[in-house]
Amino acid sequence: MASSKRGTKAKAGGVHFAVGRSHDEAHNHVHFEDKLHDSVVMVTQDENGCYLVKVGFLKILHKYEITFTIPFSQKVGTNICAAPIPNVNLKVLNIVKVQEGHRLKCEYTAHKEGVLKEELILASETDDNATVKVIIQARVMDRHHGTPMLLDGVRCIGEELEYDSEHSDWQGFD
User: Fold this and answer.
1) How far is CA 42 from the centre of its chain?
2) Cα–Cα separations (whole angstroms), residue 34 to 14, 29, 37, 78, 111
3) Alpha-carbon distance 80 to 88, whole Å?
4) Measured distance CA(39)–CA(70) in Å, rounded
5) Which residues on adjacent β-strands are paired with residue 140?
6) DSSP conformation letters of 35-78
7) How far apart are CA 16 and CA 33, in angstroms?
8) Residue pair 95/103 in contact by the 8 Å Cβ criterion
9) Res. 11 pLDDT band, cuts 50 70 90
10) Angle (nearest 5°) at CA 88 between 42 and 53
């Protein structure tokens, strides 16, 4: 049987009840650890060198500016650019070299509901064969589920108009 990596790491407790209170008082108060309040865009790298950028909850038919930093990669070097891959939902606005690596600013349109993954490729400016894949993952809510709390690094910059045929002025054919 193949062993799964899932569930092999010990998980730290994230919720605890107030200490020093009676049982009834503790029942009404839940406290979260400080590290759970970390509300920034999460960037992780897998064993293949691909970056996964989790941007949290977004609202359908809204446009967002997403800013995140990836560390320097020996594979592509320090001078990188976005490969020209056509994607109507994700566009790289700029890439800036910072002390921690490269800060990317992207424009993302949440075009359908669900967990969405959009891909972009970063390429070396000196070596045409050196590339790194970056996957942007968003959880897109429909328009009837409220307004999501955006993570640090995510900013709503507009709303796409939704076409509704019931609001059309067209009278049809006679």
Assistant:
1) 7
2) 9, 16, 6, 34, 33
3) 22
4) 17
5) 58, 114
6) GGG--B-EEEE-TTS-EEEEEEEEETTEEEEEEEEEE-BTTTBS
7) 8
8) yes
9) very low
10) 10
Higher pLDDT, 146 or 28: 146
| Phi and psi angles of residue 137, each rounded to the nearest 5 degrees, phi first | -115, 125
What's the confidence (pLDDT) of residue 113?
A: 93
Contact 107, 157 (CB under 8 A): yes
Strand runs labelled E in the chain: 15-17, 30-32, 42-45, 51-59, 62-71, 80-82, 90-98, 101-109, 114-124, 131-141, 154-159
- Tokens for 5, please give them: 């990596």
Dihedral Cα 78, 125, 89, 160, nearest 10 deg: 80
**Contact yes or no for 116/75 (Cβ under 8 A):** no
Cβ neighbours of residue 143 closer than 8 Å, sequence gap 6 or more: 59, 60, 61, 162
Pairing of strands 101-109, 62-71: antiparallel
Query: pLDDT for 110-161, tens place per residue?
Result: 999 999 999 999 999 888 889 999 999 999 998 888 888 899 999 999 988 7
